[in-house]
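Write out the 3D structure for:
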Amino acid sequence: MATLPSRHFAEGRLDMNWRKEWKPLALIAPPLFLACFYLPVGIPRFDNAVTEAFELVKWYARAHGILCLIPAFFIVGVIGMSTVTGLIYGALFSI
């Protein structure tokens, strides 16, 4: 795989070589389109499965926020405060 010069990223554009890129796109796009076209939308079993999947994602996000992220923020806060106060006290009492 060829790497692009950094100036392409700095200018905000990426040049594609369509002669190389069309083959994987041609292999991926038609099956993806057909899969989306034939989704059984409107059948209660499928609709309930999709709804329950989103409900599960919502539950996971809430549980993860409460059980993991909040304690992690408290731990980081304690470490940050102890580090800063240690530096301040070290600077004050070293005189």
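The longest helix spans residues 44-93.
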